[in-house]
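Quick one:
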Amino acid sequence: MTEPRRSARLLVRRWWPLALAVPLGAAAGAGYAVVAHPSYAADSYVIVVSENPGESATAVNFAQAYGRLAGRPQVLAAAAAETGHSRSELEALVHGTTSPDAPMIEITGTGADPQEAVLTADAVARSLVAFANGSTKETGVRLVPLAAAAEPERPTTPSGRLDVAVGGAAGVLIGALVMMTRRRSDSAAGPAAGAAPVPTAPRPRTAQPGAEPVADPGPEPRPAAGTEVTAASGTGDTAARAGKPDRAGKAGPAADAAPAESENRTKTVAGSGR
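Output:
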C-alpha cells in the first residue's frame, strides 16, 4: 500500500465521526427551515414626554418602567379584545424593548403573517399609551405614539442560512464528543490488550555510612570442563602442586618418596637371588 493511501485511510479512520456529523447536522437544519411554519415580526414605537421641560432623565426612567409593563396583563387586556387573542397568547407574541439613553419604547409583535404582526404591535402600543396616560397627573409624563408598525417583507423565522449554520455547529459538537469517547476507549483498552511484562532492574546495593562504594562483581565464573573442584581450597591447592617442582627447583613430597621406594625394591631382589 502506498503512502498516500495509508495516510488517507488513517485520516478517515480518525475523523469519520466529524465528517459524518457535520453534513447530517447541516441537512437537519435545512430540513427544519423547509418544514417550519414562518413567523413575522413588526415594530411599533412609543415615546415618553415629560410634562415639565428639562426633566429628560425622568422621561428615560419612566420609559424603562413602561417598557417592562408592555407585556403584562394590565396592558394587554384592551389589546387582547382588539386582536382576538387571549392575554396568555398575547404575552407570547409581544415584548417591549427600551433604550438606556432615550425615552423611547419599542414594541415588537409577531404573527403567522405580516398583517397579524402589524395588528398585534399597534394594538399593544395603543393599549400601553392609554394605560400610561391614565396616571399622567401622578407621574408627570405621558406617552405619545411615535411610529406605527410596518408590514415585514420577510419572515424572521425560519432562516435558511441560520438554521443550516446551527445544524452544522451541532454536528461539530456531536462529532467531537464521539471522537473523544472513542479515543478514551482506545487508550483504556490498549494497555490491557498489548501490555508486555516490564523487566525489573536489579536493585543497587546500599552502601553503609562512611564506607566506600563497592562495585558490582557480576556473575561468578563457571569452572571449565574436566576440572575437578575440591571442597576445601587448601586441599585443592596441594593436589594441584603435587609432583611439580616449586620455584626453587625442588620436588614436592611425592617426588621425594619415589627414589626411596625404588631403592627398597632393589634390595629385596638382591636378597632373594642369594
